[in-house]
Amino acid sequence: MRSITKFAAVLGVGVAALALPVGPIGAQQAAAQDFPSKPIEVIVPFKPGGRTDVVARLIGEKIKEEGLLGQPMAVVNADGGAGANAVNRMRRGDDDGHTILHWHHQALIAMAMGLGDFSLEDFKSIGYTGGGSPVWVVRSDSDFDTFEDLVAHLKENPRSLVEAVGIGTIPHFVGGMLANEAGFETRYVTANSGADRLRLLLGGNADIALFAASEYLAQGDGLKPLIYFGRERLPDLPDVPTATELGYDVSWANPNWWLAPASTPDETVAALGAALKQAAADPEIVEYFRNNTLEPYWTPGDEAMADAEKQLEALKAVAATIN
After folding, report:
1. Where are the alpha helices (DSSP H) in the chain?
2. In the chain, fewer beta carbons within 10 Å around the N or the C end?
């Protein structure tokens, strides 16, 4: 068996038989029963080498090793246009499961801000294969030792603390959702990258910033995490509570989201989902996720879409505050 760390642009997959239904069938059902009949194109809306790209290739390779489907998967990178380039490529492809997307909830931010000519109605959700969540941090010498301390201060002194964000970025939207839910308000200072946020925070020009959990763990010194946005506490940060356990209906898993065109047959989506679910549960995949501060789990397509719809409404509320 090849090592999971060896990637190839074209990933093979094995055979999974689909049971024939009883009685007459339509052309769409017949096509679904033959799925996959040719290579599956997996479009990633980012350049090669990022988390979304790497996870697509890892999952695809595991599907090949375990023989979970019957045609090769080809990962194609189509970055740019706030995801519009990838969506347009999907639209030019097949709507029978042979052209799919691997994205995350940055797609929802693009929708909330109206940055692309696409919406949730353009997609059928296959499911989530895990994800990674950020932490909200202050400087280690901050007077705030808990998130409750910080909220109490901001409610008594609105806009008295400075948050480092890039307008329209994940830190802006995640912090905005939390502020809306908890009922506080900060002031913003522009920081368009993690390095900018770190510099402003450690330099005393900002009081609060959001980082990927992996970024925080890599930095460590000088920072104090107050709240984590995952579904459950992160094993690497066992003392940091989640927003939900503190009573705030806010999370940001930024899941590895697999999407197909909206007209893709349900039977085909189910076949893809079954393969992805099994691959995501493989011990090597789970180990990779945990070693990279990611959470391994499977969320079926319908549940994933319901979660995305809820997240989109919260993101739209934040987007409405952008002048």
Report:
1. 27-33, 51-66, 84-92, 106-113, 147-156, 170-182, 194-202, 213-219, 266-280, 283-291, 301-319
2. C
